[in-house]
Amino acid sequence: MDQEIQAIEIARQSGLVYQPEIIDNADALKQLLVRSRYLLLKHHDKWTASQVQRFRLLFERYSLIKQAHQFPGTLAQVRRNLQPEFIFEKF
Questions:
Q1: Boundaries of each Transposase IS204/IS1001/IS1096/IS1165 DDE domain copy (predicted)?
Q2: Looking at residue 79, what is its pLDDT?
């Protein structure tokens, strides 16, 4: 985002019209981020085909977002694998 802001400022100072980078699904990077923010809360099994494509592009560019999105699922998997007696004894 900072790079895009700098590019907009440089274009403005040069008297040019800023043309954002368009990615594979015809979104600009800013559009990709905005359209993805609420879907990060949605389980990946419930994504539509266009949302899957959007997240593939998002995760390619931002691997940290991918890791953060997968983390709660990993915790849920660990919890499902614990014995119920262990859960109730400890908590």
A1: 27-80
A2: 67
Domain membership of residue 44 (yes or no) is yes
Quick one: which H or E segment has residue 22?
none
Domain holding 36, by residue range, is 27-90
Average pLDDT over all residues of the chain? 74
Alpha helices, H only, the chain: 2-14, 29-36, 49-61, 63-81, 84-90
What pLDDT is recorded for position 88?
62
Asked if residue 19 is part of any domain, the answer here is: no
Q: Are 1 and 37 in contact (CB under 8 A)?
A: no
Task: Give me the helix-helix angle, 29-36 and 49-61, nearest 10°.
Answer: 120
* pLDDT per residue as tens digits for the range 26-39: 677 778 777 777 77
How many separate domains does the chain show? 1
| Model pTM score | 0.53
